[in-house]
Design the sequence.
């Protein structure tokens, strides 16, 4: 595992209440109403956000991503999976990769 030092580039003026609401929404990403439903890691609740961008005016393969942090309550890992022009959607292409990374990091076995 490689650890990186962090550098604060700038502070974004956001209220603690707003940040709490954003995190509450991200923490529901794997719930039945979330965009990455089915991508949960047993025993490790995590927060995340899916993303999809069309390419070539909607005629090319989508670029997808998924950002996540885990565990949701007290994160110790944050990651971004970016998959350029691989097709699909963030929830179905990038989120499964992030799920496997999170499961591996926390030594959790995923259901078959």
Sequence:
């Amino acid at each position: 595992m490689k650890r990186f030092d962090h550098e604060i580039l700038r502070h974004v003026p956001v209220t603690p209440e707003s940040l709490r609401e954003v995190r509450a929404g991200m923490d529901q990403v794997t719930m039945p109403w979330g965009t990455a439903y089915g991508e949960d890691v047993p025993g490790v609740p995590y927060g995340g956000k899916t993303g999809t961008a069309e390419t070539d005016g909607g005629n090319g393969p989508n670029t997808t991503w998924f950002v996540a942090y885990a565990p949701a309550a007290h994160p110790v890992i944050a990651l971004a999976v970016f998959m350029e022009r691989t097709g699909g959607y963030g929830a179905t292409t990038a989120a499964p990769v992030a799920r496997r990374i999170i499961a591996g990091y926390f030594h959790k076995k995923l259901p078959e």
